[in-house]
Description:
Layout: H1 5-26, H2 44-48, H3 50-64, E1 94-96, H4 111-115, E2 121-127, E3 139-147, H5 156-160, E4 166-168, E5 183-184, H6 186-199
Antiparallel strand pairs: 1-4, 2-3, 3-5
One iron/sulfur cluster binds near residues 107, 111 and 112.
Amino acid sequence: MIRPAKEIAVSAAHEHAHNEPRALMTGHDHGHDEPRTSERKLTFWERTYLPVIFKGLVNTFKMMFRPSATIDYVGRDSKPEQRHIPAVGYRGEHYLKVDDGGNIKCVACFMCSTACPAECITIVGEPTPVDEFGAQRFKKPQVFEIDMLKCIYCGMCVEACPKDAIAMSTTYNQVHTKRSDAIYDMQRLLKNNDEFMASLNLSRSGKDATGKYPLSPDGCGPDVTHGLQPFRVGTREGGA
Length: 240
Ligand code: SF4
Ligand code: SF4
């Protein structure tokens, strides 16, 4: 029987594919029994590797005198126009806010840790002292930790916070030598607040020279005590 050309081509391709692994395994060429003999012998100098090492060194030496193609992304040694300025709304390291009295704004409500998809926030709350009316209105965190190695910088914790107590700075260059260093405790998160506010010429509670709080949502000063936080909007130019 005469087989159609298409069927013959498919059959040949199957046969080729079937023989290929065997050819590779045996070092033989497609069913022929002759071993490969085309490998070239290395010369004496090639076996010493000295020429290629010398070539590499010459190349390295030439590159040493060329202008650098990389930039110092942190910006310490680079020109201002080379620095990485995070965009408005950039989500970097977290910080915990304080009010004008220097008290932490967090009331240990667990909203942020509940919203966190990475489950990297650990909070232990404790009651605050009874106020002058005999009421114990709020809690405050005794422990507040974020495992920055688990964090995915999604910002859900910030959105969930009803007290405008947690936010994310534009700090992005984290270098740690131990895993435990990447677990930011309350002191570290408050220190982040102080450093970030100082870098923006704001007071510790985020107040500017006009008495406004540009990093807080509209209408939310440092003493906001109720209401869900509206969507955060970037309020500063240049990436803050
Ligand atoms: S940014 Fe996202 S992952 Fe990181 S702590 Fe907040 S909610 Fe969790
Ligand atoms: S949601 Fe805000 S107030 Fe509540 S525990 Fe988290 S940071 Fe504190």
